[in-house]
Amino acid sequence: xxxxxxxxxxxxxxxxxxxxxxxxxxxxxxxxxxxxxxxxxxxxxxxxxxxxxxxxxxxxxxxxxxxxxxxxxxxxxxxxxxxxxxxxxxxxxxxxxxxxxxxxxxxxxxxxxxxxxxxxxxxxxxxxxxxxxxxxxxxxxxxxxxxxxxxxxxxxxxxxxxxxxxxxxxxxxxxxxxxxxxxxxxxxxxxxxxxxxxxxxxxxxxxxxxxxxxxxxxxxxxxxxxxxxxxxxxxxxxxxxxxxxxxxxxxxxxxxxxxxxxxxxxxxxxxxxxxxxxxxxxxxxxxxxxxxxxxxxxxxxxxxxxxxxxxxxxxxxxxxxxxxxxxxxxxxxxxxxxxxxxxxxxxxxxxxxxxxxxxxxxxxxxxxxxxxxxxxxxxxxxxxxxxxxxxxxxxxxxxxxxxxxxxxxxxxxxxxxxxxxxxxxxxxxxxxxxxxxxxxxxxxxxxxxxxxxxxxxxxxxxxxxxxxxxxxxxxxxxxxxxxxxxxxxxxxxxxxxxxxxxxxxxxxxxxxxxxxxxxxxxxxxxxxxxxxxxxxxxxxxxxxxxxxxxxxxxxxxxxxxx
Length: 562
Prior knowledge:
alpha+beta, Formiminotransferase-cyclodeaminase, Chain B, domain 1, Alpha-Beta Plaits, Four Helix Bundle (Hemerythrin (Met), subunit A), 3 domains, 19 helices, 15 strands
C-alpha cells in the first residue's frame, strides 16, 4: 500500500467552530486517517495532519482547501506566523512504498485542481517547484498576504496555477503553497524572556542561512557587501535548519521557531542543546520547548538516548521510558501536556497487530488456558524467552547503576541493549507464532470441491505449515542468541543479581526446547524431506549447545551462591 501524509496549515487558530468544520471534511473521505489537529492562538494558525493512499489524500486536501476558502477571510487575518493564504501551505510527504517523484505528480495534480476549480493562486515549492527560486518556501511567501496584490501580477512571481490577478476571490482566499517534501519537524523553543530581538539573535546563530554580517555588531552596524553588491552572510551552525524569533502573547514569552528539514543531518536534541548554550551566553535561559504536529519516533528515541548518555545511564530501557526522558529533558510538556500516543506518528497510525503482547498477565494466562488451541506452546516458548532476555537486561541495568561501577556503565548498557533487542523480538514472536497457526487453519478451511480447488488448498496448506515451522525456529535462534549476554552477566554482572541470571538461563532453555517441540510437530505435516532434514539438524544442534551453555551458567550461579 502506498501512503502519503498531508500537513496543511490553515490561517485560523482561535475559532474552534471554524477549525472543526474544516477538519470535518477530511473525515468524509474514505481511506484517510486524521492523525492530529494542533491549533495555535498567538500564531492564529492550525497544523492538521492526515495520512492515507495518495488519491484519497489529495481529495481530502482539496476539500479542506475548498472549505477553508469558504470560512476564512484573509483580508482580516492577523497572526504571528508568516502567512499568505487561508490554507497557507499544503505539503505532501511520502511515507511508504511511494517515491518523491510520484508524490510530486500528486502535488501538481492537486495544485492544478485548486487553481482551476477554486480560483486560488498556487505556488509549488520544495520538490514540486518549477523553478529554483521557488524551492524555498520563504521566497514564495515573501511579502506575505499584504504584498500579494503587487506580487502575483509580476512575471517573476506569476502563480504556477490559478489566476494572476488580485480579484475579490483572491482577496478572501489569498495564495496557497503546495509541495512535495521530506518530513519536516516544526519545533519551538521557549525562553525566559519577552524579547523577540534576542530570540532572533539565537535563531540567526543556529539557522543555516545565518545572519547578515555588519560592521560594529550584529544589530546596528553597516551591512557588509561582496563585489556583486550582495549582503555578506555568516552561516549558521546547522544545515537544514530554518529559524526565526517571535513573541507569543498567549504564553507571555519569546520563542525561537525552527523548521528541521532533514532530521538525518540535524537532530532535534542538538538544536535544543545549542539553543540552550547560545541563550546562556546572552543571559537567557531555555525553559522548555514544543513540537507542532507529529514527529517520527526515531527523533525522540535519539533524544532520549542522548540525554541518558549525558547522565551515564544505561540505554537498555523500554522505548516508553526513553521517550519519557526525551520529553522531560526537552521540556516538551512545559506549555501543555505531551501525549506520545497522539504525537508520535508510528503510535498515531497504530497499525500494530500484536494482540497477545498487549494483554495483561491475567488475560494472557486465561487466554492460554481456554479451549482455544492458540496461543499454544510456541507462543508460550517465545514469552519464556522474552522473560529470560528481560532478566538479562535487568542484571545489566543493575550493574550499570551499581555504586562504585560508574566507569563501567557503558559496558553494561551495551550488553543490556543487546538483550533488550532479543526481548523485543521474542515478544513480537509471541503473536507471530499464533498468526502462523491461524494461517494453517485458514488454509484448511479453503474449498476442496474441485481438483483445482484441492490443488490451491494443498499449496496454501504446505506454505502455511512451512511458515509454522520457521517461526518457532526463529524463537529458538533468538532465545539462543541471548545466552551470550546472560553468561556475561553471570560472570561480570552485579553479584547481588546472580540468581536472576540463573532464572534467565532457565527461561531461555525452556524457550529453545519448547520451540523445538513445535518445529518437530509441524514437520510431520510438511511434504519437503530436504527442508525437514536441514531444519531438524539445525534445531538439534541449538538444543545441544543450549544445554551445554545452561550448565556452564548454572555452575557459575551455584559457585556464587555457596
